[in-house]
Amino acid sequence: MSDLKNQDVNPNSEQNQLKALLDQPIEDLPLMSLYRIRYLATELSMKDVVALAQQFIDKRQQAK
């Protein structure tokens, strides 16, 4: 139980990293941050967030 509490408080936890990234406008994030969102969301089993990040990644890659 204390491990779960520590993760909630730990600013470096995957959940907190993802929250910090998603608090920013996703359209303005660099491509590397979109990949990081996709990775973190995959690790946290957040399929909708993975799909959203992938859509933005695909748009950016098509725009090149």
Account of the 3D structure:
The protein is built from four helices and no strands. The relative contact order is 0.13. It has 64 residues and is mainly alpha-helical. Helix 3 (31-43) runs antiparallel to helix 4. The N and C termini lie far apart (47 Å). Helices cover 73% and strands 0% of the residues. The chain is globular, with a radius of gyration of 13 Å.
In brief:
The chain has 64 residues and is an all-alpha fold. It has helices spanning 2-9, 14-22, 31-43, 47-63.
What's the structural blueprint in terms of helices and strands?
Blueprint: H1 2-9, H2 14-22, H3 31-43, H4 47-63
List descriptors.
single chain, 64 residues, mainly alpha, 4 helices
Give the structural class: mainly alpha
H/E order of the elements? HHHH
Give the radius of gyration: 13 Å
Percentage of β-strand residues: under 5%
Residue ranges: pLDDT <50 for 5 or more in a row? none
Instruction: Estimate the helix proportion, in percent.
Output: over 70%
- What multimeric state do the chains show? single chain
Number of helices: 4
Q: How far from one another are the termini? A: 47 Å
